[in-house]
């Protein structure tokens, strides 16, 4: 059952309210931003979240006060850097930490162009998470995800608390887009479309495996256009926002779905999501992180699934992906080595 299908279903909310049996604190770092605000609102609507901690370098107490009036039972608290122990308190006891802190793209920028600013923001927040929430599931949204996830891993390693089963790059928006775009092409209900998207989260590293979808027949120019749209869908939003940022609302939806999937998995459900994790799949080619279907469980990553059968065209996409991914991952690792 996907978040897309269940987000606001009344019947399901009733079912979930009785099954929300454990305390689940969820922390958002970067909570006052374009993604952070709607993401926090969606988390407030999730019956599995019992405590919501919102941190940002500016504006989090206001966002928290506002969201706290929504009439669901969870507590909401906002924290800012000049509160004594603000970040530490926001993190302590968290089951899930979502990180959408950092700058978004402007027209003409690639996600890699964000590296210089966002690498140090993620590194510093990862240090705090390693210290105060070492056992939490860490969900990295800040771009470039292909590099910020390795950065977080290196920071956790340096603190001696790295658990690869608990670190996730959020690529859910690529899956959300893929099912929406394919449904537009085929005039179907996107709730019934599931497209596996593997690789990473930027441009050619985003690899949709259409041959495994409900529509393996899509070929030729239609296929090329669809694949390009899935890989570069984010650019449509960046262009339309015309300098005011990148995807925020659809990203919040995707981030809330990923958090919900982990909360459901923690309560014993078998949930499968594509997500960017430390992965054995291409380690022999020196690529430590890769997104593929992952079964989630109470310990975080339960099982990493192989990419499966691909056609020749998709193999070409994968080859291009691996080339870029390897550079993106190395860049993240080098950054932490040189700027610990
Ligand atoms: P935004 O600029 O609207 O919000 C970012 C927030 O982070 C701001 O409120 C800012 O004050 C806060 N922030 C900056 N440094 C911080 C720090 N050290 N500690 C805590 N908070 C801090 O940006 P937006 O649109 O919310 O995007 C955030 C990030 O998410 C960007 O890097 C963007 O590229 C990425 N993104 C990722 C997607 C994905 O699929 N993984 C999709 C869309 C965006």
Automatic annotation (TrEMBL):
Residues reported in the UniProt entry to bind substrate: 105, 111, 143, 177
Catalytic residues in the record: 201
Record-level GO cellular component terms: mitochondrion
Transmembrane annotation, as ranges: none
Location of the Lactate/malate dehydrogenase N-terminal domain: 25-169
GO molecular function list: L-malate dehydrogenase (NAD+) activity
Pfam families: Ldh_1_C (PF02866), Ldh_1_N (PF00056)
Binding positions for NAD(+) per the UniProt entry: 30-36, 56, 118, 141-143, 251
Catalytic activity, EC: 1.1.1.37
Coiled-coil stretches: none
All copies of domain Lactate/malate dehydrogenase C-terminal, residue ranges: 171-335
GO process annotations (BP): malate metabolic process; tricarboxylic acid cycle
Gene3D superfamilies from the UniProt entry: Lactate dehydrogenase/glycoside hydrolase, family 4, C-terminal, NAD(P)-binding Rossmann-like Domain
Enzyme class at the top of the EC tree: oxidoreductase
Keywords from the named record: NAD, Oxidoreductase, Tricarboxylic acid cycle
Catalytic reactions of this protein: (S)-malate + NAD(+) = oxaloacetate + NADH + H(+)
Family per record: Belongs to the LDH/MDH superfamily. MDH type 1 family.
NCBIfam families (alphabetical): MDH_euk_gproteo
Subunit comment: Homodimer.
Protein name as it appears in the record: Malate dehydrogenase
């Amino acid at each position: 059952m996907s978040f897309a299908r269940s987000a606001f279903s009344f019947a399901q909310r009733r079912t979930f309210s009785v099954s929300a049996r454990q305390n689940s604190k969820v922390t958002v770092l970067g909570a006052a931003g374009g993604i952070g605000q709607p993401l926090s609102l969606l988390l407030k609507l999730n019956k599995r979240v019992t405590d919501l901690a919102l941190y940002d370098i500016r504006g989090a107490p206001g966002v928290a006060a506002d969201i706290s009036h929504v009439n669901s039972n969870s507590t909401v608290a906002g924290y800012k850097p000049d509160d004594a122990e603000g970040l530490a308190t926001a993190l302590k006891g968290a089951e899930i930490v979502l990180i959408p802190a950092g700058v978004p793209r402007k027209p003409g920028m690639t996600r890699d162009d964000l590296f210089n600013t966002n690498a140090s923001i993620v590194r510093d927040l990862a240090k705090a998470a390693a210290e105060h929430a070492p056992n939490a599931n860490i969900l990295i949204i800040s771009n470039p995800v292909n590099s910020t996830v390795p950065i977080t891993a290196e920071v956790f390693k340096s603190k001696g608390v790295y658990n690869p089963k608990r670190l996730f790059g959020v690529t859910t928006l690529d899956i959300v887009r893929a099912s929406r775009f394919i449904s537009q092409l085929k005039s179907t209900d996107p709730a019934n479309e599931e497209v596996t998207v593997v690789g990473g989260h930027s441009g050619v590293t985003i690899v949709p495996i259409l041959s495994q979808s409900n529509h393996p027949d899509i070929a030729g120019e239609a296929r090329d256009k669809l694949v390009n749209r899935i890989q570069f869908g984010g650019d449509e939003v960046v262009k339309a926002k015309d300098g005011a940022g990148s995807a925020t609302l659809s990203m919040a939806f995707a981030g809330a779905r990923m958090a919900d999937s982990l909360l459901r998995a923690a309560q014993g459900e078998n949930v499968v999501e594509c997500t960017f994790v430390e992965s054995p799949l291409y380690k022999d080619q020196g690529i430590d992180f890769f997104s593929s279907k992952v079964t989630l469980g109470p310990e975080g990553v339960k099982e990493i699934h192989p990419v499966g059968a691909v056609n020749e065209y998709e193999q070409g996409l994968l080859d291009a992906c691996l080339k870029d991914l390897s550079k993106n991952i190395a860049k993240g690792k080098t950054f932490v080595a040189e700027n610990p």
